[in-house]
Design goal:
166 residues, alpha+beta, two-stranded parallel ribbon, globular
Length: 166
Amino acid sequence: MQKELVETARATNVAVYFVWMPMVPSDDRPGAFSVAAQLGDGYAKHFFDPRRLVGIQFERDHFEHFAREVQPTALPEFQKRIAERLQKPLEERPVWDAVLLWHPGAQWEDTSPKPEWAARQVGFFGPSETGEPTGLIWKPGAAQPANTGWFIELRALRKTLAVQAP
């Protein structure tokens, strides 16, 4: 996913920011910046957020509302997962494994700016470099997550951005 985002930056004049957070025991600052170094060439900026404040803010400002909005129409298995997630304290459910896109000039003030496009992985089947679906990705506005993958989603986004470029 990270490589695909960097390729999108190269191809579309998009600024890419990675916010790395400790979500599993192996997530730490050295690991995050090791991946950042492998991506190289300055097309992206990398930050480590040890307290997960950015993910918590995105959950509070946007994704919690989205979850409450889609919960009644989601398939029963997802209704249950959403309900369980929303019962946890906000600090225990930051947004992660997500891609958010804003138009140039978006300002972060008291709340984070609403993304123009967003996608969040909610299920993972396993890695693939060949383009087949690797998991479930949920986008605001969709009643259910799609059986897709980051390569598929980000390549489609890149085409959209290339068409919109001046």
